[in-house]
Write a structure and sequence with these properties.
The protein is α/β, with parallel strands linked by helices. The protein has one domain. Helix content is about 25%, strand content about 25%. It has four helices and ten strands. The strands form two sheets. The chain has a six-stranded mixed β-sheet with strand order 4-5-6-7-9-8. A four-stranded mixed β-sheet has the order 1-2-3-10. Strand 1 and strand 2 form a beta hairpin.
């Protein structure tokens, strides 16, 4: 069974974000659930992408104390079997401390690993998403568009939660740029 088919069976439809047509290609609009004016469009998203809104769908505060940031999670996960990538995306209407963003990205990595465990134990897919490259992205100042977009890479590829790609003051981004 393909990874996309497993994702379709695994995730509740209410947790998914619709992908929309955009000038012959695809886009997704990500919005922060707590604020009306905080959103970003990701253009040229792969046709097979599965977008999950973690912030709305995954709650663990009834289980864990949260004293070390373990209850935090990023806003979105984007899976693409075609690209063999998973993107962990945290959005902030204004800015935030890197430590807080890192905790949210780490929490999302835990959710991803839990998803892999569910696939192994209940779908008998032991290598589910194992070969996928991981990318961690922080998108800040999503409600302010009157400044030039700023992009900051920590060191090398943004494949660790504690060294995310940081984008500020953008209203749109290209999928390939954040997935590279």
């Amino acid at each position: 069974m393909s990874d996309t088919n497993i994702l379709d069976r695994l995730f509740n439809q209410a947790a998914r974000v619709a992908i929309k047509p955009h000038y012959g290609r695809k886009k997704v609009v990500l919005e922060e659930s707590q604020t009306q004016d905080s959103k970003i469009e990701i253009h040229n998203i792969p046709d097979d992408a599965v977008v999950i809104e973690l912030d709305k769908a995954f709650f663990n505060k009834n289980l864990f104390a949260g004293s070390q940031g373990e209850c935090k999670r990023a806003d979105y996960l984007i899976f693409s079997e075609e690209e063999q990538k998973i993107l962990f995306i945290e959005m902030k209407r204004t800015g935030a401390k890197l430590k807080d963003i890192v905790n949210q990205l780490k929490g999302s990595l835990c959710v991803f690993e839990y998803t892999q465990s569910i696939a192994a134990h209940f779908f008998h897919e032991n290598n589910f998403l194992a070969a996928y490259e991981q990318r961690f992205v922080s998108i800040n100042h999503t409600s302010m568009a009157n400044r030039k977009t700023a992009i900051e890479r920590m060191v090398g590829v943004h494949n660790k939660p504690d060294a995310p790609l940081k984008i500020s003051w953008a209203k749109t981004v290209q999928y390939r740029m954040i997935a590279a």
